[in-house]
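Below is how a single chain appears once it has passed through the pipeline. First comes the sequence as given, then the structure the pipeline wrote out for it. We keep one example in the README because the format questions we get most often are answered faster by looking than by reading.
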Amino acid sequence: MFSAMRSDRTLCLVISLMFSMVVEAGEIPRQLAHTPAKQQKNEVAFVVSYRTDELSAQSSGGVRRAEVVYVNTKDADGYAAYLKQKPGVIAVEPNYPVSNPRMPKAPIVLAPSSVRSQSISSTPNDPAFSDQWAWQAPTQEYPGVHDILAAAKKSVQKRKLRIGVADSGFHQISDLEYTKGYNFSTVDGPGADFYTSQINPSCTDNHGTAVAGIIAATTNNFEGVAGIVDTELYAARVMSCGYGALNDVATGIYWLAGQPTDAAPTLTKPVDIINASLGSSASECPTYLQEAIDFAVSKGILVVVAAGNDGIDVSGYSPANCNNVITVGSVDRRGKPSDFSNRGTGIDIAALGELVRTLNGEGEASLWFGTSFAAPSITGIAGLLKQYAPALPLERLALRVKEASRYPQDYDTNVFAGGIADANRMITKFDEDLSDIRPSFKPALADTARCHRNAYLNTSVDPSQLETLYEIDSSNLGTLATDEHYTVFALPKNQPTSEATIIAASQESKFLAPNIDLTENEYLFDICKRDGTGCRYGRTLSLLVSEQVVGVRSCSGG
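Resulting structure:
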Protein backbone atom coordinates (compact mmCIF):
# COMPACT_ATOMS: atom_id res chain seq x y z
CA MET A 1 0.00 0.00 0.00
CA PHE A 2 3.03 2.26 0.60
CA SER A 3 1.03 5.01 2.33
CA ALA A 4 2.71 7.25 4.84
CA MET A 5 0.50 7.48 7.90
CA ARG A 6 -1.76 5.32 10.04
CA SER A 7 -4.57 6.31 12.38
CA ASP A 8 -4.26 6.15 16.17
CA ARG A 9 -4.82 2.71 17.61
CA THR A 10 -7.44 1.60 20.10
CA LEU A 11 -6.29 -0.80 22.80
CA CYS A 12 -7.91 -4.23 22.54
CA LEU A 13 -7.28 -6.93 25.08
CA VAL A 14 -6.64 -10.49 23.92
CA ILE A 15 -7.39 -12.80 26.84
CA SER A 16 -5.74 -15.83 25.31
CA LEU A 17 -3.62 -16.42 22.23
CA MET A 18 -5.68 -19.44 21.32
CA PHE A 19 -9.09 -17.75 21.41
CA SER A 20 -10.32 -17.00 17.87
CA MET A 21 -7.95 -19.55 16.29
CA VAL A 22 -9.94 -21.69 13.87
CA VAL A 23 -8.80 -24.92 12.24
CA GLU A 24 -8.65 -24.38 8.48
CA ALA A 25 -11.77 -25.64 6.75
CA GLY A 26 -11.29 -28.85 4.84
CA GLU A 27 -7.76 -29.34 6.11
CA ILE A 28 -6.50 -32.50 7.73
CA PRO A 29 -6.81 -31.95 11.50
CA ARG A 30 -3.56 -30.88 13.06
CA GLN A 31 -2.19 -30.25 16.49
CA LEU A 32 -2.95 -26.81 17.90
CA ALA A 33 -0.10 -24.74 19.22
CA HIS A 34 0.43 -24.37 22.94
CA THR A 35 0.53 -21.06 24.74
CA PRO A 36 4.03 -19.51 24.68
CA ALA A 37 6.21 -20.90 27.45
CA LYS A 38 6.48 -17.58 29.31
CA GLN A 39 2.74 -16.97 29.27
CA GLN A 40 0.79 -18.66 32.04
CA LYS A 41 -2.91 -19.42 32.26
CA ASN A 42 -5.00 -16.35 33.08
CA GLU A 43 -2.33 -14.03 31.63
CA VAL A 44 -2.49 -11.51 28.81
CA ALA A 45 0.53 -10.75 26.63
CA PHE A 46 1.12 -7.11 25.68
CA VAL A 47 3.75 -5.72 23.32
CA VAL A 48 5.10 -2.43 24.64
CA SER A 49 6.65 -0.20 21.96
CA TYR A 50 9.16 2.48 22.95
CA ARG A 51 10.73 5.47 21.33
CA THR A 52 14.17 4.66 20.02
CA ASP A 53 15.91 6.49 22.87
CA GLU A 54 13.69 5.05 25.60
CA LEU A 55 14.28 1.33 25.32
CA SER A 56 13.59 -0.74 28.39
CA ALA A 57 16.53 -2.52 29.97
CA GLN A 58 14.55 -5.73 29.46
CA SER A 59 14.06 -5.28 25.73
CA SER A 60 16.49 -7.37 23.74
CA GLY A 61 19.58 -5.40 24.64
CA GLY A 62 18.40 -2.40 22.64
CA VAL A 63 17.97 -4.41 19.43
CA ARG A 64 14.19 -4.02 19.22
CA ARG A 65 12.03 -1.05 20.08
CA ALA A 66 9.47 -3.31 21.73
CA GLU A 67 9.17 -5.89 24.49
CA VAL A 68 6.54 -8.44 25.54
CA VAL A 69 5.11 -8.23 29.04
CA TYR A 70 2.68 -10.68 30.70
CA VAL A 71 -0.12 -9.39 32.91
CA ASN A 72 -2.72 -11.19 35.02
CA THR A 73 -6.03 -11.08 33.19
CA LYS A 74 -7.89 -9.36 36.04
CA ASP A 75 -5.26 -6.59 36.16
CA ALA A 76 -4.91 -6.20 32.39
CA ASP A 77 -6.89 -2.98 31.86
CA GLY A 78 -5.26 -1.10 34.71
CA TYR A 79 -1.74 -2.27 33.98
CA ALA A 80 -2.07 -1.45 30.28
CA ALA A 81 -3.20 2.07 31.20
CA TYR A 82 -0.24 2.36 33.61
CA LEU A 83 2.23 1.24 30.93
CA LYS A 84 0.88 3.76 28.43
CA GLN A 85 1.65 6.58 30.86
CA LYS A 86 5.32 5.62 31.24
CA PRO A 87 7.83 8.00 29.63
CA GLY A 88 8.97 6.84 26.21
CA VAL A 89 6.12 4.37 25.65
CA ILE A 90 4.37 5.00 22.33
CA ALA A 91 2.01 2.01 22.27
CA VAL A 92 0.74 -0.88 24.40
CA GLU A 93 -0.95 -3.45 22.18
CA PRO A 94 -1.97 -7.09 22.40
CA ASN A 95 0.41 -9.72 21.15
CA TYR A 96 -2.29 -10.77 18.71
CA PRO A 97 -2.70 -14.41 17.73
CA VAL A 98 -1.59 -15.11 14.17
CA SER A 99 -2.16 -18.05 11.86
CA ASN A 100 -2.01 -19.08 8.25
CA PRO A 101 -5.20 -18.00 6.47
CA ARG A 102 -8.08 -20.46 6.70
CA MET A 103 -7.74 -22.71 3.67
CA PRO A 104 -11.00 -22.83 1.67
CA LYS A 105 -10.20 -26.35 0.42
CA ALA A 106 -7.76 -29.04 1.37
CA PRO A 107 -4.79 -29.54 -0.97
CA ILE A 108 -5.33 -32.07 -3.74
CA VAL A 109 -2.56 -34.51 -4.64
CA LEU A 110 -2.74 -35.52 -8.29
CA ALA A 111 -0.41 -37.35 -10.61
CA PRO A 112 1.51 -34.91 -12.80
CA SER A 113 0.30 -34.38 -16.36
CA SER A 114 1.71 -36.78 -18.92
CA VAL A 115 3.00 -33.81 -20.94
CA ARG A 116 6.71 -33.53 -20.24
CA SER A 117 9.14 -31.22 -21.99
CA GLN A 118 12.82 -32.03 -22.26
CA SER A 119 14.32 -28.60 -22.84
CA ILE A 120 14.46 -25.35 -20.87
CA SER A 121 14.47 -23.51 -24.22
CA SER A 122 10.76 -24.33 -24.55
CA THR A 123 9.41 -25.21 -21.10
CA PRO A 124 10.92 -26.54 -17.87
CA ASN A 125 11.10 -30.34 -17.65
CA ASP A 126 9.65 -30.54 -14.13
CA PRO A 127 6.88 -33.20 -14.36
CA ALA A 128 4.10 -31.01 -12.91
CA PHE A 129 4.99 -27.92 -14.91
CA SER A 130 2.16 -28.26 -17.43
CA ASP A 131 -0.30 -27.89 -14.53
CA GLN A 132 1.35 -24.70 -13.24
CA TRP A 133 -1.30 -22.47 -14.75
CA ALA A 134 0.23 -19.22 -13.54
CA TRP A 135 3.15 -19.70 -15.95
CA GLN A 136 0.90 -19.78 -19.00
CA ALA A 137 -0.01 -16.90 -21.31
CA PRO A 138 -3.43 -15.33 -20.73
CA THR A 139 -6.25 -16.12 -23.15
CA GLN A 140 -9.76 -14.80 -23.53
CA GLU A 141 -11.00 -17.82 -21.59
CA TYR A 142 -8.30 -17.74 -18.92
CA PRO A 143 -7.17 -14.15 -18.26
CA GLY A 144 -6.36 -14.93 -14.61
CA VAL A 145 -2.88 -16.34 -15.32
CA HIS A 146 0.42 -14.48 -15.33
CA ASP A 147 2.60 -15.36 -18.37
CA ILE A 148 5.52 -16.20 -16.09
CA LEU A 149 7.31 -18.48 -18.56
CA ALA A 150 7.68 -15.73 -21.19
CA ALA A 151 8.93 -13.33 -18.52
CA ALA A 152 11.41 -15.85 -17.12
CA LYS A 153 12.96 -16.30 -20.56
CA LYS A 154 13.52 -12.53 -20.86
CA SER A 155 14.73 -11.90 -17.31
CA VAL A 156 18.52 -12.09 -17.27
CA GLN A 157 19.85 -13.03 -13.84
CA LYS A 158 22.39 -10.30 -13.09
CA ARG A 159 22.45 -11.21 -9.41
CA LYS A 160 21.12 -14.20 -7.50
CA LEU A 161 18.38 -13.04 -5.16
CA ARG A 162 17.83 -13.69 -1.48
CA ILE A 163 14.16 -14.31 -0.63
CA GLY A 164 12.73 -14.82 2.85
CA VAL A 165 9.55 -16.72 3.73
CA ALA A 166 7.92 -15.97 7.10
CA ASP A 167 5.67 -18.96 7.81
CA SER A 168 5.61 -22.41 9.42
CA GLY A 169 5.38 -25.94 8.10
CA PHE A 170 8.81 -26.08 6.47
CA HIS A 171 9.88 -29.57 5.39
CA GLN A 172 13.15 -30.90 4.06
CA ILE A 173 12.42 -32.16 0.54
CA SER A 174 14.67 -32.75 -2.44
CA ASP A 175 13.08 -30.19 -4.79
CA LEU A 176 13.52 -27.29 -2.37
CA GLU A 177 16.72 -26.09 -0.72
CA TYR A 178 16.95 -23.56 2.11
CA THR A 179 20.11 -21.50 2.48
CA LYS A 180 19.32 -20.81 6.14
CA GLY A 181 16.43 -20.94 8.57
CA TYR A 182 15.54 -20.29 12.19
CA ASN A 183 12.59 -20.86 14.54
CA PHE A 184 11.29 -17.61 16.06
CA SER A 185 8.06 -19.03 17.47
CA THR A 186 7.82 -18.53 21.23
CA VAL A 187 5.23 -21.32 21.27
CA ASP A 188 7.88 -24.02 20.96
CA GLY A 189 11.19 -22.23 20.43
CA PRO A 190 13.11 -20.23 19.56
CA GLY A 191 15.91 -22.35 18.21
CA ALA A 192 18.06 -23.32 15.26
CA ASP A 193 15.76 -26.20 14.23
CA PHE A 194 13.10 -24.93 11.84
CA TYR A 195 11.91 -28.00 9.94
CA THR A 196 8.58 -29.38 11.18
CA SER A 197 10.01 -32.88 11.56
CA GLN A 198 12.75 -31.57 13.83
CA ILE A 199 10.36 -29.83 16.22
CA ASN A 200 7.01 -31.59 16.12
CA PRO A 201 6.84 -34.69 13.89
CA SER A 202 3.13 -35.13 14.71
CA CYS A 203 2.24 -31.79 13.09
CA THR A 204 0.73 -32.12 9.61
CA ASP A 205 1.33 -28.49 8.65
CA ASN A 206 3.26 -28.04 5.39
CA HIS A 207 2.05 -24.56 4.49
CA GLY A 208 5.50 -22.94 4.36
CA THR A 209 6.77 -25.67 2.03
CA ALA A 210 3.92 -25.01 -0.40
CA VAL A 211 4.54 -21.26 -0.33
CA ALA A 212 8.30 -21.63 -0.79
CA GLY A 213 7.83 -24.15 -3.61
CA ILE A 214 6.01 -21.61 -5.77
CA ILE A 215 8.87 -19.16 -5.40
CA ALA A 216 11.96 -21.30 -5.37
CA ALA A 217 11.51 -25.00 -6.16
CA THR A 218 14.43 -26.20 -8.27
CA THR A 219 13.54 -25.70 -11.92
CA ASN A 220 14.40 -28.00 -14.81
CA ASN A 221 15.56 -30.93 -12.66
CA PHE A 222 12.98 -33.53 -13.83
CA GLU A 223 11.36 -33.35 -10.40
CA GLY A 224 8.28 -31.79 -8.81
CA VAL A 225 7.44 -28.27 -9.91
CA ALA A 226 9.26 -25.25 -11.31
CA GLY A 227 10.10 -22.35 -8.99
CA ILE A 228 9.80 -18.87 -10.47
CA VAL A 229 13.27 -17.66 -9.49
CA ASP A 230 16.64 -19.23 -8.75
CA THR A 231 17.25 -17.78 -5.31
CA GLU A 232 18.89 -18.20 -1.94
CA LEU A 233 15.92 -19.13 0.26
CA TYR A 234 15.64 -18.13 3.94
CA ALA A 235 12.99 -19.63 6.23
CA ALA A 236 11.77 -17.61 9.22
CA ARG A 237 9.59 -20.05 11.19
CA VAL A 238 7.36 -17.56 13.01
CA MET A 239 4.53 -19.91 14.02
CA SER A 240 4.16 -23.38 15.49
CA CYS A 241 2.09 -25.74 13.34
CA GLY A 242 0.41 -22.77 11.68
CA TYR A 243 -0.38 -20.73 14.82
CA GLY A 244 1.48 -18.26 17.01
CA ALA A 245 1.91 -14.68 18.19
CA LEU A 246 2.20 -11.63 15.96
CA ASN A 247 5.27 -10.25 17.69
CA ASP A 248 7.16 -13.38 16.59
CA VAL A 249 6.31 -12.45 13.00
CA ALA A 250 7.83 -9.03 13.63
CA THR A 251 10.98 -10.68 15.00
CA GLY A 252 11.24 -12.91 11.94
CA ILE A 253 10.92 -9.90 9.64
CA TYR A 254 13.69 -8.09 11.53
CA TRP A 255 15.93 -11.14 11.15
CA LEU A 256 15.29 -11.44 7.42
CA ALA A 257 16.07 -7.73 7.10
CA GLY A 258 19.49 -8.24 8.67
CA GLN A 259 18.72 -6.85 12.13
CA PRO A 260 20.29 -8.66 15.12
CA THR A 261 17.84 -10.57 17.32
CA ASP A 262 18.25 -12.18 20.73
CA ALA A 263 19.17 -15.67 19.63
CA ALA A 264 19.37 -16.14 15.87
CA PRO A 265 22.70 -15.56 14.12
CA THR A 266 22.44 -12.28 12.23
CA LEU A 267 22.32 -12.60 8.46
CA THR A 268 25.39 -11.22 6.70
CA LYS A 269 23.13 -9.52 4.15
CA PRO A 270 19.39 -8.82 4.27
CA VAL A 271 17.06 -10.59 1.87
CA ASP A 272 15.66 -8.80 -1.20
CA ILE A 273 12.00 -9.81 -0.81
CA ILE A 274 9.93 -11.15 2.11
CA ASN A 275 6.79 -13.24 1.64
CA ALA A 276 4.35 -13.44 4.56
CA SER A 277 1.30 -15.63 3.82
CA LEU A 278 -0.23 -15.29 7.28
CA GLY A 279 -2.43 -12.97 9.23
CA SER A 280 -4.16 -11.81 12.36
CA SER A 281 -7.58 -10.28 12.97
CA ALA A 282 -6.12 -6.96 14.13
CA SER A 283 -8.34 -4.08 13.04
CA GLU A 284 -5.27 -1.90 12.63
CA CYS A 285 -1.66 -2.80 12.00
CA PRO A 286 0.05 -2.95 15.42
CA THR A 287 2.95 -0.57 15.99
CA TYR A 288 5.46 -3.36 16.59
CA LEU A 289 4.60 -5.08 13.31
CA GLN A 290 4.54 -1.85 11.30
CA GLU A 291 7.95 -0.89 12.66
CA ALA A 292 9.38 -4.25 11.61
CA ILE A 293 7.98 -3.80 8.10
CA ASP A 294 9.26 -0.23 7.97
CA PHE A 295 12.71 -1.41 8.99
CA ALA A 296 12.69 -3.96 6.16
CA VAL A 297 11.55 -1.29 3.71
CA SER A 298 14.37 1.00 4.89
CA LYS A 299 16.75 -1.74 3.75
CA GLY A 300 15.16 -1.77 0.30
CA ILE A 301 13.21 -4.99 0.91
CA LEU A 302 9.87 -5.62 -0.79
CA VAL A 303 7.31 -7.14 1.60
CA VAL A 304 4.53 -9.20 -0.05
CA VAL A 305 1.59 -10.41 2.06
CA ALA A 306 -1.56 -12.47 1.59
CA ALA A 307 -4.92 -10.69 1.81
CA GLY A 308 -6.56 -13.50 3.81
CA ASN A 309 -9.38 -15.94 3.09
CA ASP A 310 -12.37 -14.71 5.10
CA GLY A 311 -14.23 -12.93 2.29
CA ILE A 312 -14.20 -9.65 4.25
CA ASP A 313 -12.63 -6.25 3.76
CA VAL A 314 -8.88 -6.57 4.02
CA SER A 315 -8.67 -3.57 6.36
CA GLY A 316 -9.38 -5.91 9.30
CA TYR A 317 -6.46 -8.26 8.66
CA SER A 318 -2.76 -7.76 9.53
CA PRO A 319 -0.19 -7.53 7.99
CA ALA A 320 -2.41 -7.03 4.92
CA ASN A 321 -3.64 -3.74 6.43
CA CYS A 322 -0.13 -2.49 7.20
CA ASN A 323 1.59 0.26 5.23
CA ASN A 324 4.52 -0.39 2.89
CA VAL A 325 3.43 -3.88 1.82
CA ILE A 326 2.02 -5.33 -1.39
CA THR A 327 -1.26 -7.01 -0.46
CA VAL A 328 -2.33 -9.84 -2.77
CA GLY A 329 -5.87 -11.05 -3.42
CA SER A 330 -6.88 -14.28 -5.15
CA VAL A 331 -8.50 -14.89 -8.54
CA ASP A 332 -9.27 -18.06 -10.46
CA ARG A 333 -8.03 -18.83 -13.97
CA ARG A 334 -11.03 -17.03 -15.47
CA GLY A 335 -9.88 -13.85 -13.72
CA LYS A 336 -12.81 -13.85 -11.29
CA PRO A 337 -12.13 -12.86 -7.67
CA SER A 338 -12.17 -15.95 -5.46
CA ASP A 339 -15.20 -16.09 -3.18
CA PHE A 340 -12.99 -16.70 -0.17
CA SER A 341 -10.51 -13.87 -0.81
CA ASN A 342 -10.53 -10.77 1.35
CA ARG A 343 -11.22 -7.71 -0.77
CA GLY A 344 -11.40 -3.94 -0.85
CA THR A 345 -9.34 -0.90 -1.74
CA GLY A 346 -6.40 -2.36 0.18
CA ILE A 347 -5.81 -5.09 -2.44
CA ASP A 348 -2.82 -3.90 -4.46
CA ILE A 349 -2.76 -6.74 -6.99
CA ALA A 350 -4.37 -10.13 -7.62
CA ALA A 351 -2.85 -13.50 -8.51
CA LEU A 352 -3.99 -17.05 -9.07
CA GLY A 353 -5.10 -18.52 -5.74
CA GLU A 354 -7.03 -21.57 -6.92
CA LEU A 355 -5.59 -24.83 -8.23
CA VAL A 356 -2.07 -23.55 -7.61
CA ARG A 357 0.43 -26.33 -8.31
CA THR A 358 3.20 -26.52 -5.73
CA LEU A 359 4.77 -28.95 -3.24
CA ASN A 360 3.55 -30.50 0.01
CA GLY A 361 5.66 -31.70 2.92
CA GLU A 362 6.24 -35.03 1.22
CA GLY A 363 7.60 -33.32 -1.87
CA GLU A 364 4.51 -34.23 -3.88
CA ALA A 365 3.22 -31.84 -6.53
CA SER A 366 -0.24 -30.87 -5.31
CA LEU A 367 -2.96 -28.26 -5.92
CA TRP A 368 -3.55 -25.57 -3.30
CA PHE A 369 -6.17 -22.89 -2.64
CA GLY A 370 -5.97 -19.53 -0.93
CA THR A 371 -4.39 -16.08 -0.96
CA SER A 372 -1.41 -17.74 0.74
CA PHE A 373 -0.54 -19.21 -2.66
CA ALA A 374 -1.36 -16.09 -4.67
CA ALA A 375 1.15 -13.99 -2.71
CA PRO A 376 4.24 -16.10 -3.56
CA SER A 377 3.48 -15.77 -7.28
CA ILE A 378 3.80 -11.99 -6.82
CA THR A 379 6.98 -12.51 -4.81
CA GLY A 380 8.41 -14.59 -7.65
CA ILE A 381 7.28 -12.16 -10.35
CA ALA A 382 8.86 -9.24 -8.49
CA GLY A 383 11.96 -11.41 -8.17
CA LEU A 384 12.20 -11.77 -11.96
CA LEU A 385 12.55 -8.00 -12.29
CA LYS A 386 14.78 -7.62 -9.24
CA GLN A 387 17.30 -10.18 -10.53
CA TYR A 388 17.34 -8.34 -13.87
CA ALA A 389 17.73 -4.87 -12.30
CA PRO A 390 19.30 -5.47 -8.87
CA ALA A 391 19.69 -1.78 -8.04
CA LEU A 392 16.10 -0.91 -8.91
CA PRO A 393 14.74 1.09 -5.95
CA LEU A 394 12.01 -0.53 -3.89
CA GLU A 395 9.36 2.03 -4.81
CA ARG A 396 9.98 1.56 -8.54
CA LEU A 397 10.04 -2.22 -8.21
CA ALA A 398 6.66 -2.21 -6.45
CA LEU A 399 5.23 0.27 -8.93
CA ARG A 400 6.33 -1.73 -11.98
CA VAL A 401 4.86 -4.95 -10.58
CA LYS A 402 1.51 -3.25 -9.94
CA GLU A 403 1.39 -1.12 -13.09
CA ALA A 404 1.90 -4.15 -15.35
CA SER A 405 -1.34 -5.73 -14.13
CA ARG A 406 -4.33 -6.43 -16.40
CA TYR A 407 -8.02 -5.62 -15.95
CA PRO A 408 -10.06 -8.18 -17.93
CA GLN A 409 -13.52 -7.37 -19.20
CA ASP A 410 -16.06 -7.23 -16.35
CA TYR A 411 -13.26 -7.07 -13.76
CA ASP A 412 -14.76 -5.27 -10.76
CA THR A 413 -12.33 -2.81 -9.17
CA ASN A 414 -14.77 -2.42 -6.29
CA VAL A 415 -13.78 -5.94 -5.26
CA PHE A 416 -10.02 -5.60 -5.87
CA ALA A 417 -8.51 -2.19 -6.44
CA GLY A 418 -5.47 -3.73 -8.14
CA GLY A 419 -5.49 -5.73 -11.38
CA ILE A 420 -4.22 -9.22 -12.22
CA ALA A 421 -0.44 -9.64 -12.34
CA ASP A 422 1.21 -9.97 -15.75
CA ALA A 423 4.88 -10.95 -15.50
CA ASN A 424 5.59 -10.79 -19.22
CA ARG A 425 4.03 -7.35 -19.57
CA MET A 426 6.21 -6.16 -16.67
CA ILE A 427 9.50 -7.36 -18.19
CA THR A 428 8.55 -6.32 -21.73
CA LYS A 429 7.65 -2.79 -20.63
CA PHE A 430 10.90 -2.53 -18.68
CA ASP A 431 12.91 -3.55 -21.76
CA GLU A 432 11.02 -1.05 -23.92
CA ASP A 433 11.74 1.72 -21.44
CA LEU A 434 15.44 0.82 -21.43
CA SER A 435 15.50 1.09 -25.21
CA ASP A 436 13.82 4.50 -25.04
CA ILE A 437 16.46 5.94 -22.70
CA ARG A 438 19.56 4.72 -24.60
CA PRO A 439 21.75 7.82 -25.14
CA SER A 440 24.46 8.40 -27.73
CA PHE A 441 27.84 7.27 -26.37
CA LYS A 442 30.91 8.15 -28.44
CA PRO A 443 34.47 9.45 -28.16
CA ALA A 444 34.48 13.19 -27.61
CA LEU A 445 36.93 13.64 -30.50
CA ALA A 446 34.60 11.84 -32.91
CA ASP A 447 33.08 15.29 -33.44
CA THR A 448 35.19 16.78 -36.26
CA ALA A 449 34.14 20.32 -35.47
CA ARG A 450 35.34 19.92 -31.93
CA CYS A 451 38.82 18.98 -33.19
CA HIS A 452 39.30 22.52 -34.53
CA ARG A 453 38.42 24.18 -31.26
CA ASN A 454 41.83 24.98 -29.79
CA ALA A 455 40.19 26.28 -26.65
CA TYR A 456 38.68 22.86 -26.06
CA LEU A 457 42.04 21.10 -26.54
CA ASN A 458 43.85 23.59 -24.38
CA THR A 459 41.55 23.04 -21.41
CA SER A 460 42.76 19.47 -21.06
CA VAL A 461 45.38 18.99 -18.36
CA ASP A 462 46.79 16.05 -20.29
CA PRO A 463 45.93 16.07 -24.01
CA SER A 464 47.14 12.49 -24.30
CA GLN A 465 44.06 11.43 -22.34
CA LEU A 466 41.62 12.96 -24.81
CA GLU A 467 41.20 9.60 -26.50
CA THR A 468 39.61 8.27 -23.31
CA LEU A 469 37.15 11.17 -23.03
CA TYR A 470 33.64 10.24 -24.20
CA GLU A 471 30.51 12.26 -24.82
CA ILE A 472 27.04 11.23 -23.65
CA ASP A 473 24.10 12.82 -25.45
CA SER A 474 20.78 12.34 -23.62
CA SER A 475 18.90 15.12 -25.38
CA ASN A 476 16.08 12.79 -26.43
CA LEU A 477 15.16 11.68 -22.92
CA GLY A 478 12.86 14.45 -21.79
CA THR A 479 12.72 16.30 -18.47
CA LEU A 480 14.49 15.25 -15.28
CA ALA A 481 13.03 15.54 -11.81
CA THR A 482 14.63 18.23 -9.64
CA ASP A 483 16.95 15.82 -7.85
CA GLU A 484 17.75 13.56 -10.83
CA HIS A 485 20.92 13.37 -12.95
CA TYR A 486 21.95 11.54 -16.09
CA THR A 487 24.51 9.17 -14.61
CA VAL A 488 27.32 6.99 -15.99
CA PHE A 489 28.76 4.11 -13.99
CA ALA A 490 31.93 2.10 -14.60
CA LEU A 491 31.61 -1.61 -13.87
CA PRO A 492 34.65 -3.92 -14.02
CA LYS A 493 33.89 -6.74 -16.43
CA ASN A 494 32.41 -9.92 -14.91
CA GLN A 495 31.54 -8.10 -11.67
CA PRO A 496 28.06 -7.72 -10.11
CA THR A 497 26.21 -4.44 -10.58
CA SER A 498 26.81 -3.59 -6.93
CA GLU A 499 30.48 -2.95 -7.85
CA ALA A 500 29.57 -0.16 -10.30
CA THR A 501 30.91 3.30 -9.43
CA ILE A 502 29.86 6.74 -10.68
CA ILE A 503 32.27 8.38 -13.14
CA ALA A 504 30.03 11.17 -14.41
CA ALA A 505 26.68 12.75 -13.57
CA SER A 506 25.01 15.80 -15.05
CA GLN A 507 21.66 17.52 -15.39
CA GLU A 508 22.76 18.78 -18.82
CA SER A 509 21.66 16.60 -21.72
CA LYS A 510 25.20 16.53 -23.19
CA PHE A 511 28.17 15.92 -20.94
CA LEU A 512 31.58 14.23 -20.89
CA ALA A 513 32.81 11.11 -19.09
CA PRO A 514 36.59 10.80 -18.58
CA ASN A 515 39.00 7.85 -18.53
CA ILE A 516 36.85 5.41 -20.49
CA ASP A 517 38.55 2.00 -20.81
CA LEU A 518 36.42 -0.36 -22.85
CA THR A 519 38.86 -3.26 -22.42
CA GLU A 520 38.54 -3.34 -18.62
CA ASN A 521 35.07 -2.00 -17.90
CA GLU A 522 31.45 -2.05 -18.93
CA TYR A 523 29.69 1.30 -18.76
CA LEU A 524 26.14 1.68 -17.48
CA PHE A 525 23.69 4.54 -17.87
CA ASP A 526 20.74 5.47 -15.68
CA ILE A 527 18.76 8.40 -14.34
CA CYS A 528 19.59 8.67 -10.63
CA LYS A 529 20.06 10.99 -7.71
CA ARG A 530 23.43 12.76 -7.55
CA ASP A 531 24.91 10.09 -5.25
CA GLY A 532 23.91 7.26 -7.62
CA THR A 533 20.94 6.04 -5.57
CA GLY A 534 17.27 5.96 -6.52
CA CYS A 535 18.06 4.95 -10.12
CA ARG A 536 14.99 4.58 -12.33
CA TYR A 537 16.20 1.42 -14.07
CA GLY A 538 18.47 -0.28 -11.54
CA ARG A 539 21.71 0.41 -13.46
CA THR A 540 20.59 -2.02 -16.13
CA LEU A 541 21.37 -0.20 -19.41
CA SER A 542 24.81 -0.87 -20.93
CA LEU A 543 26.26 1.97 -22.99
CA LEU A 544 27.25 0.95 -26.53
CA VAL A 545 29.84 2.95 -28.49
CA SER A 546 28.16 4.62 -31.44
CA GLU A 547 31.24 5.84 -33.39
CA GLN A 548 34.88 4.86 -33.88
CA VAL A 549 37.63 6.65 -31.99
CA VAL A 550 39.25 9.56 -33.82
CA GLY A 551 42.95 9.69 -32.99
CA VAL A 552 44.13 12.76 -31.12
CA ARG A 553 46.93 13.33 -33.66
CA SER A 554 44.55 13.58 -36.62
CA CYS A 555 42.32 15.78 -34.56
CA SER A 556 45.03 18.23 -33.48
CA GLY A 557 46.61 18.24 -36.93
CA GLY A 558 43.39 19.21 -38.71
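The chain has two domains: 126-404+416-433, 437-556.

See the next section for the split statistics.
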